[in-house]
Amino acid sequence: xxxxxxxxxxxxxxxxxxxxxxxxxxxxxxxxxxxxxxxxxxxxxxxxxxxxxxxxxxxxxxxxxxxxxxxxxxxxxxxxxxxxxxxxxxxxxxxxxxxxxxxxxxxxxxxxxxxxxxxxxxxxxxxxxxxxxxxxxxxxxxxxxxxxxxxxxxxxxxxxxxxxxxxxxxxxxxxxxxxxxxxxxxxxxxxxxxxxxxxxxxxxxxxxxxxxxxxxxxxxxxxxxxxxxxxxxxxxxxxxxxxxxxxxxxxxxxxxxxxxxxxxxxxxxxxxxxxxxxxxxxxxxxxxxxxxxxxxxxxxxxxxxxxxxxxxxxxxxxxxxxxxxxxxxxxxxxxxxxxxxxxxxxxxxxxxxxxxxxxxxxxxxxxxxxxxxxxxxxxxxxxxxxxxxxxxxxxxxxxxxxxxxxxxxxxxxxxxxxxxxxxxxxxxxxxxxxxxxxxxxxxxxxxxxxxxxxxxxxxxxxxxxxxxxxxxxxxxxxxxxxxxxxxxxxxxxxxxxxxxxxxxxxxxxxxxxxxxxxxxxxxxxxxxxxxxxxxxxxxxxxxxxxxxxxxxxxxxxxxxxxxxxxxxxxxxxxxxxxxxxxxxxxxxxxxxxxxxxxxxxxxxxxxxxxxxxxxxxxxxxxxxxxxxxxxxxxxxxxxxxxxxxxxxxxxxxxxxxxxxxxxxxxxxxxxxxxxxxxxxxxxxxxxxxxxxxxxxxxxxxxxxxxxxxxxxxxxxxxxxxxxxxxxxxx
Length: 730
Description:
It is a single chain. By secondary structure, the protein is mostly beta strands. A hairpin with an 8-residue loop joins strand 19 (about 315-330) and strand 20 (about 335-350). About 40% of the residues are buried.
């Protein structure tokens, strides 16, 4: 896509640019960033047998690479608190604009290798302290003494701390900064931005990443991936799916993203059965600014947005807003999208208090292209779309309101709270050929001597929902080596589902806004957790996490098949997790993690069954073993995982006691694999990044049911050790 960007930003002298003379010689000014990014993505969907020897060979190659460090200069030093002179273990030391990063030891000391002789800027950061930049010229022989100043005001980061992993937490994850995100932000939905992270596969209904898109992590579908924005659950509470189309251009307002793979840390919303995506939106800038961005690309894809901020007012108040529009014809026939969004944030940032509001509003109208392209048409008509009715659209708006309050009670204790409300409403419109009018509670019209039973109709299926709740966490940090978080959340969802006929080929008796089905789903979710991170020595850190969760469902009314819905269900879950991290050096560590997760059935599992055929909840046992290395040029992560499922829900084709094809519990299934991600800095301008996952995903025993149209009933086929669908081996 081609970008045209105009910015109005007040320029202030930057004392950190003191060493930028070489840049000024060639470019006339110090550039903000200059990069070339190459990503190598290897995926295979064909037959591939998981062989352990391949994993061993990959491990040997990986370990050989990690010992290669072409170092010329070494930076050493110590990081302390400027007020108490106490050492700060676990502080991050990075060379600006590179992947070269290390952390301080228990005595606050660090050692950082600089591969080439060059002018460098160090970025030193630590939670609760103001980030410091230090510009250095050679030589590096003298140890550095760096002092960090405690924050004079609370930061927005504390509002999402309870759902995030720290670098010492023994779980597999990937972090994307705002710089990483903006490199790939060309108007596509968020799945297209995170698709290059390990074990992620993305889909796009329209074929170009705009409109309905989805992600799978380790083969797990979107209903098993927990998504939060600022710690607030975003997945639809009933279907448990994530609809990125309802949040257009979200990437333009994101500070960072953390993708957790596996069962993950305790969070809000439904349990994570493949991964979690934790998003933190950007805080207002300290400087007043305005920016207009426009992008145009293939398939008449157009993105426009306007961003403006007040900057700091009286040293405490800040506000920022964004308006966006994205339009595209799509790659698939008639798969057009018209998306609009609003983002607003602002509030009071004080010495001990923070009060911040976030508003996210998205409106989408997309032509339906949900059926995909059949295999027979891939070679002759790759843009085929099943739907031809001119207004076969999905039309929906969703508004998110979030209000956060945090208080630093004392040097050891801080409180964070949030209230939230989401209002969604919309419909999808469908053209139905020769449908039985009785399905819509319409009388059969009589024309002459003929009674009309079947008619073409246009219907709208509506969803109006409210989602609201309260979240609180208390962080206790008696020392730099110990952190404990106690959290709790209460969330409630109420969804109205109803259908209307807006046109029929043959007139019948009906009233304005007559509904042919109408029902409500009410879901209440309460959870509480305790997390502890403890550095027991310079080399070893331990992690513990216990969550209790209670889920209540209630359904009332008539569904779209004219059936009375089940009454209610009540579930209690206990989700323990624990792990250990061993620091080999300041730049490398190994970790082990084990955890249990539980997940409730989705809306369809309830509404398409009865008390006699209702499925059980799912359970996941997850183990992870990993190794991390962050060198001067090479950054690598290797992770081995095993995910064992008890009663995983899958489609088998079996008809239940009310004639519906619903998901059925499978006794035993698993996902196992090895993940490798690596990045190498060739020089200042050229970086290479890549990831590779080899996995084996199996159902121990699978009973498939196929309708027997000749003799009636169903035929049973038993499969042993069969692959799990949509889970690529490579």
